[in-house]
Each structure stands twice: as structure tokens, then as C-alpha cells.
Amino acid sequence: MTKQFLITRPRHDKETSYLHSFSKAIVGIVRENKNIHLTELEGEKANRENFELAMHSSHSTLAYLNGHGDEKTVFGHNDAPILDDDNIKLAREKIICALACSSLVKLGPLAIEEGAKAYLGYRDEFMLVGDPSKSAVPDKDKNAAPFRKVCHMLINSLVSGEPAGEAIKKTKAEYKRLIRSYGTSEDDPFGDAPAIGLALSWDLLGLDMVGDQNTTF
Amino acid sequence: MSEKEIYEEQKKLVLARLKTINPDSKIMLGTKNSVSVKEIITHVEHSDDFGKKIIQAQINMLKVLTE
User: Fold this and answer.
1) Fewer CB within 10 A of the terminal residue: chain A, N end or C end?
2) Distance from C-alpha of A164 to C-alpha of A158, rounded to nearest angstrom
3) Are A210 and A104 spatial neighbours (Cβ–Cβ below 8 Å)?
4) Pairing between strand A73-75 and A3-9?
5) 8 Å CB contact of B26 and A129
6) Which of A78, A72, A75, A125 is nearest to A103 (CA)?
7) Sorting pLDDT into bands at 50, 70 and 90, what band is A188?
């Protein structure tokens, strides 16, 4: 069966611009993979109508949602809801990975109740540390590099066909490695390294999944 | 040591560490807010929900560092 990688990439504010930047690499990787059909909903295309149309596909789908979120909703362009309890049935038989705040709390379990294979995401707000002087060009923000790395590791692991539980495990291990790297920067008390370590630790506590740990894309 | 005493010790430890960080460093939150280290310290001092989560995250970081 053909695989479909569906990605939403709004970029209407500072936070979504960072997530948009973080997902650039995975879009490039999938675009080069002839076995995977890429459906990219970027900018204003990241809306509910386009999302629902793509989710109606019968292809084996991994949906990677980037945007703002809360416990019950993931949002798209201009913070309009794209996935919530009204259309969560579309998650049936699919793997959902949400780089959005808090949606693992209620939307994730609801997705599993409705037949999703797995839902990976965060139980709390997603934190990141950026360099204020680079916020207009997130691609060049070195402070954001560790957050980019863990976000890419999770989705790349899923795209590569690793089991969902293994993707979470690997990503948590990478979080820990980065915390060791940034959290001990005692020679950088007036830089951002200790704050980066704190934010990584916060995100590590929030990352988790519900559903089948052994499911693969 | 009671749970409350443990919490108070953790709070002291976390505050001591946070006070070594540049107070103007800012952390972006997904809910469209940025919070400075100075503001984080206030949350921890007040032991509000966000402050308590910060304590958990900082203690978790220390555990990772000593693993």
C-alpha cells in the first residue's frame, strides 16, 4: 500500500515559524523518497478543509501536525482548529504525531478510542529557547538547534519505519544527551545554555505517546 | 523527611540554580508567551502551578545530569 506523509506547517507567528523551520528537513527527506506520497499543507494551506480532505485518504498515513495546541485541539493557519473532537474520527488507522502543546492529554486518548494506531505528542506546553536577535530567521538560530534536533529525530524515526515506542525512546535518549551537554554549561552563566537545559528537561517530561507502541509507518 | 519538607528543599535548590542563570534569558512557550528567567523565579517563589512544574523540570534535569 502506498504511504502518505501528511504534514501541516503553519507559520503565522513566531512560534509556528520556529516549528515550520524545524520541519524543513523532514519535508526534504520525504520528497526524495519515492515510496512515500507527500501532502504538505504549508502556511495558509494548513486549514481544516485541506486537512480533512487529505485525512480521507485510504493510504497508510502518518500525519505530522505542527502548530499551536491545547488539550483538546491542534490548530493550523491563524490558529483555526484543524483537529479536534468533531473530526478526530479521521485519525482512524493512522499515526498522528503532534508538535503542539498539550494535545496528548485529551485529544491523543480520544484519537486512540476512535481507532488511531498511535498518537505521539506532548502532555504540556512545548518550550524552546530562541535567540531574540534571530527570531526573524529561525533557520539561523543556534539556540534553537537542540530543539530542532529532537523534533527531527522523532519524526524521522517514524518516517524511517521504526516502531512508535522506539521513536519515543530514541528521542527521549537524545533529550537526555542534550541536557547533559547544555545543563552543565557552568562556564556560560550569562548565556542561554542553562535556560536551554531547563527547557529541554521540561519538554522531555512532556513527550509521550498513547496507542500501539509497536505500530510502524 | 515529609513530602512537604522534600518539596521545600527542592524549591530551595531550584531557586539557587535559577539565580545563577541570566535573569533576562527568555523561554518561549507554545501558548504564545515568552517567560524570562526572572519571571520563572517569581513563579517558583510563589509555588503556583507553573512554578511547581518548573521545579519538576529542574529536578529532572539534575537527575539526568547525575545518571
Assistant:
1) N
2) 6
3) yes
4) unpaired
5) yes
6) A72
7) low
CB A169 within 8 A of CB A208: no
Q: What pLDDT is stored for residue B67 in this prediction?
A: 85
State the Cα–Cα distance between residues A54 and B35, nearest whole angstrom.
Answer: 36
Cβ-nearest to A129 among B28, B32, B67: B28
Backbone angles phi, psi at A153, to 5 degrees: -60, -40
What is the domain range of residue B49? 3-66
* Cβ-Cβ contacts under 8 Å, A197 against chain B: 61
Judged by a CB distance cut-off of 8 A, whether residue A74 touches chain B is: no
ipTM surpasses cut 0.95: no
CA gap A97, B32 in Å, rounded: 21
For chain B, the distance separating the N- and C-terminal CA atoms, rounded to the nearest angstrom, is: 23
Q: How far apart are the first and last CA of chain A?
A: 11
Rounded distance between C-alpha atoms, residue A169 and residue A160, angstroms? 15
Instruction: Look at chain B and report how many structural domains it folds into.
Output: 1
At residue A216, the 3 state secondary structure works out as coil
Residue type, A50: N
At residue A59, the pLDDT reads 81
Partners of A122 in the β-ladder: A207
Confidence of residue A185 (pLDDT cuts 50, 70, 90): low
Facing residue for A68 by CB, picked from B30, B56, B64: B30
Choose, out of B21, B34, B50, B59, the residue to mutate when testing the contact with A (most A CBs < 10 Å). Answer: B21
Domains plus CATH for chain A? 3-211 (3.40.50)
